[in-house]
Amino acid sequence: MLLQMTQLFVGRGRISVIHTPNHQFRIRSSERSLSTPRKWRLETKSIQIPQSLVISMKSSIAHPKPSTGGGVRASAMAVLIISCAVSGCLGQDKPEEERTSITIAYEVSPNMVDPGLNPQIFSDHISEISNFDITISIVDSKVAMLEALRFGNVDVAYMDSGNAWIGWNQYGIEVLAADQKSDGRSYYNANAWVLNDSDMAIAHLDSDQLTNPFSLMESKVSCHTGWLDSVGMMLPMGFLLGLGYANIVGDPNDIESLRGTIHGYFSQDSSIPDPGTPLYGFSGALKCLSEGSGDIAFAKENSIQDFCPIGDDEIREDWCLDNSRYVALPSFAKAPSDVFVYNPDYLNNETLEELTRLLTTLDDNDESSEILSNTFGTEGVVKTNSDEHLGIYSSLVSGIPGISAYFVDEQPSGEDITITLEELIIAFQVEESTNGTNQDPNLLAGFLSEQLGVNVSIVYVDSEYEKISSLESGESHIAFMEHTSSLVAWKKHGLAVLAAIQNDDQTTSSAISGWSLSGSGILENDESDNSMIDPYGKTKGVVSCHTGTDPYTNSIAPLSYLIDIGQILNDDESPSLSQESQIMSHFNYSSSIPTPNSSYFDESGAIRCLSEGYGEIAFLSENYISNECSVSIQEGEDWCLGESNYTSLGIIGSLPSTSVMYNPLVLDTRSRASILNSLIDLNYDMYLENYSRPGFGTYTGCYDISVHKVFENIPKQSCGDEILKNILNGPGIVRANSQEHLGEYSDDVLMVPGGFYAVEEYILTE
After folding, report:
1. CATH of the domain at 712
2. H or E element, residue 456
C-alpha cells in the first residue's frame, strides 16, 4: 500500500503523521520539542508499507493513550496536520533530500545530572545540521548495547574499547570512529594508582630495577571499575597474566574464571562493582583507594586530575586526599579510547561513510564541538577501524583464557582446555644415564603427552643457568629449578613460576633457624626485663657456625633477619661487600664459614661446629636436627648430641621449594593453563600393589583417585606418584605464581647489600 508521511519539524524535534487513502493515521511526536516550539517546517513524502502495518495503525488509533500537558498540544497539532495532509492544504511536495534515520545506543551514567550532558541535545543538533534524523536509545548497561547492536535494534553505539572488543570478537561488531584526547591521541595510558606510603609506591620510586612494584600486588585489595571494563579490569589482568605475575584460577573455559583469578591473585575483598553502585567507574575505583577500602585502583593516567583538580572545589570529589598521596605506577598498557561502533549487517556503506564524515568533522564548528565534548567527553573524533584501533589491545586481553573461550565459544565450560603448542619441550638437568630407570624424565614426558595430546620431549642441560638460557631463548617451555636459579630467572630474566614441587612434609618452603645448645647464655632472660628478649639480639660478637652452602642458608637469612630487627644497620654499603665480611663484622672474626670438603661444611658440619663447642650459634634448616641427627646417632656418628640438647632460637627465613618455571613471552596463557592442569594430575595417581577391597577383589595398578579407577596396564614407574617421587623429588605439585612462591625469599635477598649478586654468582659457579 502506498502511504504518505507528513513531518512537521518544530524547533529541533518533529511530528510524523502517516496517512492512508482510507484516512487511517499513525502519529509520532517529540513531546519535549513541542513544549518549546521555535520553527516549523512541514515535509510530506510517499512511502510504501505492507497491509499488516496498516492494521496495526488502525488499532493504535482506535485505542489512543490518555495524555496531559504537552501531550494535549501535541494531539491538537497532529489533528491540524492530519487535516491539512488529507485535504492537501499545505501541499505534498517531496523534500529536496531524503533524510536517513539513525538510532544510537547510549549508556547514561547514574550521576549524569547536568542537562548539558543530555544526549538528546546531541541528537537534536545532528538532526538540525545534517540529513540524519538521530534517535537516542538509552540503555542501562554495556551488555544491553551489544545485544541491541547484535539484533539490529540500534544502528550505532558509543562504548569503551573493552566492550567494543567483545562485540568485535563475538558478534562481528565493527569500529567506525574513536575519541581523540586533547593531545590528539586516540588512546590513553592505563595505570595502577596506589598511595605513597604503600610498598608498591616505595618499590616504584626507589630506582632499583629489582624491586618491581607489580610483583608486590599479590594479596592486595584491588579496586576495579566494573566487570569486563577495559582499563579497570581487562587490561590489568591481561598484563598480569601475560607476564606471569598471576595464573588462572578456576575453569579456564568459563568467563567467571576471571573473577576467580582476581579474587585468587588479589584478595577476596577486591572490588568488582556493578553499574550504579558507589564504587563503579574510574571515580569509584579511586574512591575505593582513597577511603582505604582497597590498596590499588586501576584507572586512566589522568584520573586524579579529572576527579581531584587542585583549586577547583566544584569538581573536586569529597573523597579526594591531598594529591601528593597518589602515585601512578608505570603504565602497563595503552588503552584504546572510546569508540562509535556499528553492525555491518544492518548499516549500509553509503550511510556509514556519511555518518563517519559527519562525526569526524564536528570539531570544525564551535557549537558542534562543545556539544560533542559535553556528550562524549572528547575533543574530537577520528576515523578508524577495528584492526587499527583494537589490534594491540586484542593481543593483550585475548590471553585471558576464560575471556577467549567466552568470545569464540571453542569449548563448552567444564571441558579441558587444549594446549596451543605442537610440542612441549622440558629442560631437564639430569644424566642421560637415567634413561630406562625410574628416574628417567621421559616418563614424565610420556605422562604429560597423554594428558595434553601433543608430543612432549626432553632437552638435557648441564646447569641451572642453562635452564634459564633455554627458557629465555624459547628452546624449551618449562623447567624445574631450585630456589636460587628461580629467583635470578624471575628478577633478572623475566621468567615466571607456574607451579611448585612440595617438600616431604607437603609444604612448599623450608624454614631456616638459628640453633644453640640448650642452656646457652643466648637463651637467658634479661634480668632487667621479665619478658623474653629476642635471642638474636644477643648474638653480637659470638662465634657463629654456617653451612658454607647456598648464600641464603649460609649468610643471607641471618643477615636479613638481623637487619630487620635493627641489630645491623643497612647503610647501603657497596653491593660488592661480601656476605662473609658482613658476617664477621656482626658475629666474630673466628666464625665458621666453611669451604667444601672441610670438616664443618654443610648442615651436618654446622651442627658439628656447635656440638664440639667451636661456635655458640648454628644456622640451618629448622627440621634438620629432628630428621637427620637421630639417623647420624644410629649410624655411629658422635657429633650429634641428641635432639634434646639443642634449642631453636626461632625461624629467620625460609627457602622456597623447586619451582616450575616458564617464559611468559614464549608460552601463551592457554598453554600454561593446560600444562598446569596436566602437572596437577600427577597428584591424582597412586600405585597400588595387591590392594584388597572387600567385595571387589585384589588390585595392582595405577589408581586414579579422581575417577576412582585402577589402570592395571600402566607400569609402576609411569604412575603419577612414582614420577613425583623419583623424578621431581616431592610428594606433590601445587599451583603457584612468582610472588606467592618467591616473594618473601626475594625480600630477604634484596634486603642484604650484595645479596642478589651473591645468589647470581652462586648459580654461575655451580
Report:
1. 3.40.190
2. strand 455-460
